[in-house]
Design a protein that fits this description.
The chain has 218 residues and is an alpha+beta fold. It has two domains: 105 residues, Alpha-Beta Plaits; 98 residues, Alpha-Beta Plaits. It is 36% helix and 28% strand. The chain is built from six helices and ten strands; from the N terminus they run E-E-H-E-H-E-E-H-E-E-H-E-H-E-E-H. A six-stranded antiparallel sheet has the order 1-6-7-8-10-9, with helices on both faces. It is globular, with a radius of gyration of 17 Å.
Length: 218
């Protein structure tokens, strides 16, 4: 199964090398530890969550803020708003720059949604993280370095596909995000061995494609 990738669009990236203490605190940073902020908006929220986590593997940065916007990128508040705002904080502006480089690289070459129906009207995110960074490890309750399948699809498709993924390999659900999420998708995080996570992600994607092709079961 080969699906066409839908590459995320980075809409804006700006740095505050010496952010005001009130701005640091407003976004969840610690003014006693953090000096710099990096802010990014993108039209794919889940890809950005993965990219934020990737940044923590390559630099001394913390993800202090990451929120999806209601109803998704199609209903954004402005041209540069997209679907999510993510904020990195660092004690050293150079570390912040290194984190932003890793974040951009992940969005440009790794994490993305895929077209599941050949029309772009049903999309799927069957992403496997081989080794978790500090951000998603803390969010999931797993250990840094653990593998995780990060699986996202529209509401009905996700329910069918999650069942297929869990039955396809020796994986367990860490968190399930039932619909509606802020963007009206649904998601799940699964863990197991890397091979098992990869098998589960393939089964998840295949099930979403199958539902898209035949939405009415007979």
């Amino acid at each position: 199964m080969i699906l066409e990738p839908i590459l995320p669009k980075i809409l804006a990236v700006r740095r505050l090398p010496r952010a005001d203490a009130a701005v640091l605190a407003a976004y969840g940073a610690d003014p006693a530890r953090h000096v710099s902020l990096g802010l990014i908006t993108c039209d794919q929220d889940d890809s950005t969550y993965v990219a934020l986590d990737e940044a923590t593997k390559h630099a001394a940065v913390d993800v202090v803020y990451a929120r999806s916007f209601y109803a998704g990128a199609g209903h954004a508040s402005g041209r540069l708003s997209g679907e999510i705002l993510g904020v990195l904080a660092a004690a050293d502006p150079d570390e912040l720059d290194a984190g932003l480089v890793a974040l951009r690289r992940c969005l440009e070459h790794d994490a993305c949604f895929y077209d599941a129906d050949g029309k772009g009207t049903v999309t799927v995110f069957p992403h496997v993280i081989a080794s978790l960074g500090r951000y998603l490890a803390a969010q999931s309750g797993l250990a840094v370095g653990d593998p995780m399948a990060y699986l996202v699809a529209p509401p009905l498709e996700q329910g069918i596909a999650l069942d297929a993924a869990l039955k396809s390999a020796n994986v367990r659900a860490v968190k399930v995000f039932p619909p509606p999420t802020e963007t009206n998708f649904a998601a799940a995080w699964l863990t197991g061995t890397l091979d098992a996570c990869e098998a589960a992600a393939v089964a998840f994607a295949e099930a979403v494609v199958a539902v898209a092709a035949a939405p009415h079961q007979r």
